[in-house]
Amino acid sequence: MRRYKINLTLIKSAACKTQAVCGASVLKCRGCGASLSLMEGKRCAYCGRELDLKMYDWVITNYVSSK
Ligand SMILES: [Zn+2]
Q1: CB-count burial class (<10 Å; 0-12, 13-18, 19+) for 4
Q2: How far is the CA of 65 from the centre of ligand 1 (A)?
Q3: How far is the CA of 35 from the centre of ligand 1 (A)?
Q4: Short-list 25, 33, 32, CA closest to 53
Q5: Are 60 and 12 spatial neighbours (Cβ–Cβ below 8 Å)?
Q6: Domain spans, the chain
Q7: Cα(21) to centroid of ligand 1, in Å?
Q8: Model-wide pTM > 0.70
Q9: Distance between CA atoms of 14 and 27, rounded to whole angstroms?
């Protein structure tokens, strides 16, 4: 097994008041109110509205791996 060092760049909205984990695995669509799972992607399967994930939890915007 090889090991890599990865530098992550994370962003999170200041409006997200909760601690490190916002419970982003269970979200509600702001458009239609449907319950969404991050496993289904960041777009509502019902109304197609895109979720702004950084409003809920840390979002990886960039990463650099060094061997
Ligand atoms: Zn929706």
Answers
A1: exposed
A2: 35
A3: 8
A4: 25
A5: no
A6: 5-66
A7: 23
A8: no
A9: 18
Q: Strand, helix or coil at 50?
A: strand
Tens-place pLDDT, residues 2-36: 887 888 887 777 766 655 554 555 567 778 888 77
- State the CB neighbour count (10 A cutoff) for residue 56: 22
What residues contact 55, with CB distance under 8 A and at least 6 apart?
13, 15, 16
C-alpha count within 13 angstroms, C-beta hemisphere, residue 36: 25
The pLDDT score that the predictor gives to residue 35 is: 79
| Phi-psi label, residue 48: left if phi above 0, alpha if psi -120 to 50, beta otherwise | left
